[in-house]
TrEMBL record:
<dbReference type="Pfam" id="PF06127">
    <property type="entry name" value="Mpo1-like"/>
</dbReference>
<feature type="transmembrane region" description="Helical">
    <location>
        <begin position="55"/>
        <end position="76"/>
    </location>
</feature>
<dbReference type="GO" id="GO:0005783">
    <property type="term" value="C:endoplasmic reticulum"/>
</dbReference>
<dbReference type="GO" id="GO:0046521">
    <property type="term" value="P:sphingoid catabolic process"/>
</dbReference>
<protein>
    <recommendedName>
        <fullName>DUF962-domain-containing protein</fullName>
    </recommendedName>
</protein>
<dbReference type="InterPro" id="IPR009305">
    <property type="entry name" value="Mpo1-like"/>
</dbReference>
<dbReference type="GO" id="GO:0016020">
    <property type="term" value="C:membrane"/>
</dbReference>
<keyword id="KW-0472">Membrane</keyword>
<keyword id="KW-0812">Transmembrane</keyword>
<feature type="transmembrane region" description="Helical">
    <location>
        <begin position="12"/>
        <end position="34"/>
    </location>
</feature>
<feature type="transmembrane region" description="Helical">
    <location>
        <begin position="88"/>
        <end position="109"/>
    </location>
</feature>
<keyword id="KW-1133">Transmembrane helix</keyword>
Length: 144
C-alpha cells in the first residue's frame, strides 16, 4: 500500500512540476521501496532479534517523534502553527514537495522560479501586514 501511495505522490508531483517532480517521485518511491524491503526482511528467520510487531512499534514511535519535532520547530522557532492546522491536504501532500523545492533552491537549481516565488511571497506578506495595521487602527478587527 505504501508503494502505491508513494507512486501517486510522485505522479502528482510530476504533474505539478515535471523537473522537480521527477526528483520528488524518485525520493518518495525510493523511501517506500527501502522501507518495504527492510520490513519484509524482518519477517525472515535469522534476520535479527526484532519482530514484526517491534518493527511496527518503532515505526509508529519515529512517526510520532517526527510530528512532535515539527510542532516544536514551528512553535518555538517559527512562532507559527504548522500547515497541518490550516490545511490537511497541504500538510500531508504538498509539504514534502515544498522540501524538494527548498533543497533544489539551496543547490542553485530553478533560480528563476525561486525569484518569482519570493517576489510573490513578499507582495503577499506586505499586503497582509498592511491589512493587519488597517484592522488594528480600525477597531481591533483581525485581518484574514
Amino acid at each position: 500500500m505504501s508503494t502505491v501511495v508513494a507512486w501517486l505522490y510522485g505522479l502528482y508531483y510530476i504533474l505539478l512540476d515535471w523537473k522537480l517532480g521527477l526528483f520528488g517521485w524518485g525520493i518518495s518511491v525510493g523511501f517506500a521501496t527501502t522501507a518495504n524491503k527492510y520490513y519484509y526482511q524482518t519477517l525472515e528467520p535469522g534476520f535479527g532479534s526484532i519482530t514484526t510487531q517491534q518493527f511496527v512499534h518503532y515505526a509508529v514511535a519515529i512517526h510520532i517523534a517526527s510530528w512532535l519535532a515539527q510542532f516544536y520547530g514551528h512553535g518555538i522557532h517559527e512562532k507559527r502553527a504548522p500547515a497541518l492546522l490550516d490545511n490537511l491536504l497541504q500538510a500531508l501532500v504538498l509539504a514534502p514537495f515544498f522540501v524538494v523545492f527548498e533543497v533544489a533552491f539551496a543547490l542553485g537549481f530553478r533560480k528563476d522560479m525561486e525569484k518569482n516565488m519570493n517576489s510573490k511571497a513578499g507582495i503577499r506578506v506586505r499586503d497582509f501586514k498592511s491589512a493587519q495595521k488597517a484592522a488594528a487602527a480600525g477597531g481591533g478587527k483581525k485581518a484574514e
